[in-house]
Design a protein that fits this description.
Order of helices and strands: HEHEEEH
Strand order of the largest sheet: 1-2
Number of helices: 3
Largest sheet: 2 strands, antiparallel
Strand content: 15-25%
Low-confidence stretches: none
Oligomer: single chain
Mean pLDDT: 89
Distance between the termini: 24 Å
Radius of gyration: 22 Å
Helix content: 40-55%
Number of strands: 4
Number of domains: 1
């Protein structure tokens, strides 16, 4: 593994965490959505991460980065719909109420979503720190070579 591969790993994690935050934000925005184009209430979405091989770019190969350790980044494998049934609330005045006066709402817990969003934000920050540390190591390597 070389230093430029580290940048690729962190970049893949930054992209995946950004997409995770977007899915969580969508869940929070639709916490009260009772009607979707597909019919019924909004269904909570979850992100499933998977490993993704990282290839050395031409620049990294030029600098002679021999790989002795397989390097894997992260990617979004898929976004799944939560199978939990909708939450039924009694509100006979709501336009989407059934014959008994109940409305189907998404099964979204705002506290759980905020914790997930904070986790995504924290993971994003940690990967930014990894990029900064890698950048410092590359600059120090260049300084050593030019000395």
């Amino acid at each position: 593994m070389n230093l430029f591969s580290l940048l690729d790993v962190s970049a893949s994690a930054l992209k995946a965490e950004r997409e995770r935050a977007e899915v969580v934000a969508s869940n929070l925005a639709n916490a009260e959505t009772t009607r979707t184009p597909a019919g019924g209430p909004y269904r909570r979405k979850e992100v499933v991460f998977g490993a993704a091989p990282v290839r050395d770019g031409d620049f990294a190969r030029t600098l002679g980065g021999l790989r002795d350790v397989p390097v894997e980044g992260v990617r979004i494998e898929r976004v799944i719909t939560d199978p939990a049934p909708p939450v039924r609330r009694y509100d006979p005045s709501h336009p989407d109420a059934d014959g008994q006066g109940y409305v189907a709402y998404p099964d979204i817990n705002p506290i759980e979503e905020m914790v997930d969003l904070m986790g995504a934000a924290r993971a994003y920050q940690l990967n930014v720190s990894a990029v900064q540390a890698t950048k410092q190591m590359i600059l120090q390597s260049l300084n050593i070579l030019t000395s």
